[in-house]
Amino acid sequence: MSDAHSEQTHFGFKTVDKDQKASMVAEVFHSVAAKYDIMNDMMSMGIHRLWKRFTIDSAGARAGHKVLDLAGGTGDLTAKFSRLVGPTGQVVLADINQSMLEVGRDKLRNLGVVGNVEFVQANAEELPFADNTFDIITIAFGLRNVTDKDKALASMYRVLKPGGRLLVLEFSKPTQDWLSKVYDLYSFKVLPQMGKLIANDAESYQYLAESIRMHPDQDTLKSMMEAVGFEQTTYHNLTGGIVALHKGFKF
Amino acid sequence: MPALQLLSATLESAINRVLALDENSAKRLRPLAGKRLALHLQELSQPLLFVFSQRIDILVCDDEPDCLISLSMSTLPQLTDSSQLTELIRQQKLSVRGDMQLAQDISALFKELDIDWQEHVSRYTGDVVAHHLGRVVRDGSQWLSNKAALVKRQLRDALAEEKPVLVPKGRQLQFNRDLDALTKRTEALDKRIAALSSVKESV
C-alpha cells in the first residue's frame, strides 16, 4: 500500500503527496458539508442511522462519562451522547474540517443540545488533549479520510483513559461475493450520479466511493489497532460487512 | 441490517413524538432525568434500555439499569391494568428488580398524558375540519360503545332465557337462599341424629 511509502499516499484511487491529502480531503468535505446529512440518507437509504445507533449501543456511555466524538462532522452521535452522559458528563465534538464543525454546531443548537458539548477543530493524528482524558472515543466514517491511520490510532490510544474504549465505525469489505458486485456497481455508477444530482458534485462522491475501497479490511484494521496497544479488539460486521464496527480497550 | 436497532429507533421516535404532543411532558420528564429503565422482553436477545433526559433515548444494550422489568411480549398488553400487576408477578409472568418507584413514576408519565388531538389535527387541516373530525370520532366512539353495550345485553338475555345456559339474577338469588336454608336444616338434622344416637348409647 502507498501508505508505507514516505512521500506518497492514496487519495481515493489516485496517488498523491502525503502533505496534499489533508487539504484535498478538506476540499471534498467543504464542498459536501451543507448537504452531508441528506446525502448520507440518500446513499445508505437511511441505514447509516442504524449503524450509528449500533455504535452508540456498544459504547456503554453512562452519566458522568467524557466522550470524544472524533470526525463527528454533523453531530449525529454527539447529540445522543450528550443526553446519555448528562450534565455531569462531557462530549467533545472534534472534526478537522471547519465547515463540517459549523454545520454540526448549528444543527445541535437547533436540537437544543447545549451545555455539556464542546467543539474542537482537531487533527486525529495529533489530538490536542491530555493523556488519559476520555472514557469513550468514537470515530464514525472518519478514519478512512485520515492520512496516517496508524498515527491517528496511536493518538486516540494516548488520550483514552485506562479502561476506556475506542469504537471505529467504518466502511469495510462485504463478506459475500454477490453483495460485493452489487455494491461496486452501486458505488461507482449510481453514487457519483446521485452526488451530481443532489450536491452538483460528482467528483467528491467519486472520491468517497474510491476511498471506501482503499480502506483496510476487517482483519487488517483489527491488527492495526492491536499494533498501537488496544486490547480485547473485536469487530462486528453490519449489513453484510459493507460496514464494520471495531472495538478495542485500553487497559 | 441491525434489526433490533430498527425496532429501538422506531419505538424511540414514536414515544418521543407522543410525549411531545402534551406540553406538560417536559415538566414531568424533569424529575426522571438521568434514570435508566431496562425492559427485557423474553423474545428479544437483548434488553431495551430507556434512558431519560429531556426526552427518552432507547438503547439496545445490557448495561446495569436502575430498574429492570422482564416479561414476555404476550404479557405486555396486560400491563395497562394496574390492578393485575401483583397477580402477574405472583404468576411469575412479570418480574421487577431494582427501583420500583421508578417503574411507577414512568407508568404515571404515560398515564397522565393529556393530548388534545383536535388541536394537533387542526394544525394540518384547519379548525373547521378538525372540529368536524373530532365530532365524528366522538360520535363514532359513543356509537361504538352504545352498540357494544347493546350486544352485551342481548347476549345476556339470550343466554339466560332463550337457551337455559345462564339463569336470571333473581332466580339465582332465590336458589342460593333455598340452598342456604336446606344446608341449615340438614345440619340441624345431623346434630339431632348425633344427639339421639349418643342418648341411645348411654342407655
TrEMBL record, chain A:
The keyword Acyltransferase does not apply. It comes from Pseudobowmanella zhangzhouensis. It catalyses: a 2-demethylmenaquinol + S-adenosyl-L-methionine = a menaquinol + S-adenosyl-L-homocysteine + H(+); a 2-methoxy-6-(all-trans-polyprenyl)benzene-1,4-diol + S-adenosyl-L-methionine = a 5-methoxy-2-methyl-3-(all-trans-polyprenyl)benzene-1,4-diol + S-adenosyl-L-homocysteine + H(+). The gene is ubiE. The keyword Disulfide bond does not apply. This is Ubiquinone/menaquinone biosynthesis C-methyltransferase UbiE. Pfam families: Ubie_methyltran (PF01209). One of its GO terms (molecular function) is 2-methoxy-6-polyprenyl-1,4-benzoquinol methyltransferase activity. Its EC number is 2.1.1.163, 2.1.1.201. Belongs to the class I-like SAM-binding methyltransferase superfamily. MenG/UbiE family. PROSITE patterns: SAM_MT_UBIE (PS51608), UBIE_1 (PS01183), UBIE_2 (PS01184). Methyltransferase required for the conversion of demethylmenaquinol (DMKH2) to menaquinol (MKH2) and the conversion of 2-polyprenyl-6-methoxy-1,4-benzoquinol (DDMQH2) to 2-polyprenyl-3-methyl-6-methoxy-1,4-benzoquinol (DMQH2). Pathway: Cofactor biosynthesis; ubiquinone biosynthesis; Quinol/quinone metabolism; menaquinone biosynthesis; menaquinol from 1,4-dihydroxy-2-naphthoate: step 2/2. Keywords: Menaquinone biosynthesis, Methyltransferase, S-adenosyl-L-methionine, Transferase, Ubiquinone biosynthesis. S-adenosyl-L-methionine binds at T74, D95, N123, A124. GO terms for biological process: methylation. It comes from the Bacteria.
TrEMBL record, chain B:
Pathway: Cofactor biosynthesis; ubiquinone biosynthesis. Transmembrane segments: none annotated. The keyword Cytoplasm applies. Residues 15-111 form the SCP2 domain. It comes from the Bacteria. Pfam families: SCP2. Keywords: Cytoplasm, Ubiquinone biosynthesis. The keyword Cytoplasm applies. It is found in: Cytoplasm. SUPFAM superfamilies: SCP-like (SSF55718). HAMAP family: UbiJ (MF_02215). Required for ubiquinone (coenzyme Q) biosynthesis. Binds hydrophobic ubiquinone biosynthetic intermediates via its SCP2 domain and is essential for the stability of the Ubi complex. May constitute a docking platform where Ubi enzymes assemble and access their SCP2-bound polyprenyl substrates. Belongs to the UbiJ family. This is Ubiquinone biosynthesis accessory factor UbiJ. It comes from Pseudobowmanella zhangzhouensis. The gene is ubiJ.
